[in-house]
């Protein structure tokens, strides 16, 4: 896509996302330089809730999902489910959704195309729709533009289950003329989405599915917990192997979603960058151990409490680090963007090796415009003592601090890059105009309400 067209479609995505969650405007004016202090609630994880909603399609009875965040991705998946006949009561605003799949039906609606372009979740409808209806059609997917994001592992897995995949100019048509049968699948890389594809398809396929090189992110473990409540038989073996014994039918579930560790890590980074103190109600230590280690190495501090985690800047200088993003239990790729803003304030040179996506440093351009010293090595950097095996398409960012950030006009490029821009604007001296903030509402529920609670000085642009 040419850049102008891409910019235009980004703006459209951001405006749609902003409208879905009722943001007053897609642009905010931030007067930076104030520490963020206070308590905020972290609800269920975007990367679990949206998948658990899809899982409801597999049940014969209603499912209840609790701690649902009011984010635009949840609104998109709700609408997609409704178009396919799922009756939804409750609301993301209230935090509880009741999903009734009794009348699931083949859907033909122009709205599906538009909605699919806003999120990557539609690809996960394949297995459940094939089991329920024998047919699925998936138009072009959306989600953050941080690399090519192919779906070859998903399609290969579906073929291994016996599905017939037809790639059409308008999308992908998938059928299962002979039903779906258990399969032996080995992923070339522990992809989160492809692992979920195999889980959501294998639970009702005939026979046993063995998945090798599976992703084991906490959100996947929580999805497995959801599926077990529904009647699935799934065991997690050593060395990234998951075994699924297919069953004939599944029922609905009642589940409280795992908290959003990415949201908690983002607010923690905001506390560090702005020299603040933020208590994330609902955050838990277990799923954040790798982040907490790095946070401490940089010079941040935290208190683990019964009802959440307090992240704070204890005073003193911040220290540089070398980070390699990786699959769980490594340092998650979605954490690096917000943390890089804090690293611009550390004394010395930090290196972030991005090994999961091949194009995830675009957001640093705006930080450089605001005064940061960041160099992106587009072909990666060889480094001493690397732990993660080098991937062909990785990149590295070298951040040298401390640098004073100043306000600027910046445009949110994607979800985590956008949150990073927001933190940079809050850290900077002076006024920033941050546009496209609707994209941030893809993954951060009520982020403007939370900013208000934390004492940020900002207003919506007219
Ligand atoms: C909605 C959701 O849960 N999104 C998360 C999910 O994305 P998502 O599930 O899309 O990410 P994957 O784990 O699948 O992608 C990881 C890597 O595998 C590659 N790949 C993936 C599938 C495929 O068919 N072919 C292929 O080559 C991707 O291009 C990427 O380089 O996990 C990512 C990695 O933790 C997170 O950053 C995202 O926040
Ligand atoms: C990359 C992300 O999300 P998605 O896969 O939904 O684009 C993210 O949450 O940072």
Description:
The protein is an alpha+beta fold. The chain folds into two domains: 3-42 and 259-460, Alpha-beta prism (UDP-n-acetylglucosamine1-carboxyvinyl-transferase, Chain); 46-256, Enolpyruvate transferase domain (UDP-n-acetylglucosamine1-carboxyvinyl-transferase, Chain). 31% of the residues lie in helices and 24% in strands. It is built from 14 helices and 23 strands. It has helices at residues 3-20, 46-55, 72-83, 110-116, 126-133, 152-160, 192-202, 218-230, 261-273, 289-298, 336-343, 364-369, 415-427, 447-453; strands at residues 27-32, 37-41, 63-66, 87-91, 96-100, 135-138, 164-168, 171-175, 184-186, 208-212, 233-237, 241-245, 254-256, 277-281, 301-305, 308-312, 322-324, 348-354, 373-377, 395-401, 409-411, 430-435, 457-460. The strands form six sheets. A four-stranded mixed sheet has the order 21-22-1-23, with helices on one face. Strand 15 and strand 16 (308-312) form a beta hairpin. Helix 2 (46-55) packs parallel to helix 8 (218-230). The model is unreliable at 1-5 (pLDDT under 50). The structure holds uridine-diphosphate-N-acetylglucosamine and phosphoenolpyruvate.
């Amino acid at each position: 896509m040419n850049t102008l067209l891409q910019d235009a479609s980004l703006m459209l995505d951001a405006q749609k996302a902003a409208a879905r969650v009722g943001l007053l405007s897609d642009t905010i004016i931030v007067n930076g330089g104030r520490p963020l202090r206070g308590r905020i609630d972290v609800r269920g994880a975007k990367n679990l809730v949206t998948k658990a909603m899809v899982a409801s399609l597999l049940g014969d009875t209603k499912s209840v999902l609790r701690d649902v965040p009011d984010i635009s991705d949840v609104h998109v998946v709700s609408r997609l489910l409704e178009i396919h006949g799922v009756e939804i009561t409750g609301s993301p605003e209230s935090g509880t959704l009741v999903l009734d799949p009794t009348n699931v039906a083949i859907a033909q609606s122009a709205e599906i195309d538009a909605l699919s372009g806003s999120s990557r979740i539609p690809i996960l409808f394949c297995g459940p729709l094939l089991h329920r209806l024998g047919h699925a059609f998936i138009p072009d997917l959306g989600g953050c533009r941080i690399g090519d994001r192919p779906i070859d592992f998903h399609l290969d897995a579906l073929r291994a289950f016996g599905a017939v995949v037809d790639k059409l100019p308008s999308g992908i048509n998938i059928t299962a003329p002979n039903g779906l049968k258990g399969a032996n699948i080995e992923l070339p890389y522990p992809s989160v989405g492809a692992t979920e594809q195999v889980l959501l398809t294998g639970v009702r396929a005939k026979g046993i599915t063995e998945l090798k090189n599976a992703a084991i992110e906490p959100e996947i473990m929580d999805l497995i917990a959801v599926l077990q409540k529904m009647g699935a038989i799934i065991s997690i073996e050593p060395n990234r192997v998951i075994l699924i014994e297919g069953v004939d039918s599944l029922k609905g579930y009642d589940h409280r979603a795992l908290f959003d560790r990415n949201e908690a890590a983002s607010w923690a980074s905001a506390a560090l960058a702005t020299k603040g103190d933020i208590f994330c109600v609902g955050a838990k230590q277990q799923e954040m151990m790798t982040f907490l280690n790095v946070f401490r190495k940089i010079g941040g501090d935290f208190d683990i409490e019964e009802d959440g985690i307090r992240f704070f800047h204890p005073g003193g200088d911040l220290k540089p680090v070398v980070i390699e993003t990786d699959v769980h239990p490594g340092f998650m790729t979605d954490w690096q963007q917000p943390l890089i803003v804090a690293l611009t304030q550390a004394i010395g040179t930090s290196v972030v090796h991005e090994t999961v996506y091949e194009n995830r440093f675009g957001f640093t351009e705006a930080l450089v415009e605001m005064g940061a010293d960041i160099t992106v090595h587009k072909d990666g950097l060889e480094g001493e003592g690397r732990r993660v095996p080098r991937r062909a398409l990785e990149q590295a960012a070298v951040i040298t601090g401390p640098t004073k950030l100043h306000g600027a006009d910046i445009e949110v490029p994607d979800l985590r890059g956008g949150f990073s821009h927001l933190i940079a604007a809050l850290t900077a001296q002076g006024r920033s105009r941050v546009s496209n903030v609707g994209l941030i509402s893809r993954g951060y529920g009520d982020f403007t309400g939370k900013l208000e609670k934390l004492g940020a000085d900002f207003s919506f642009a007219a």
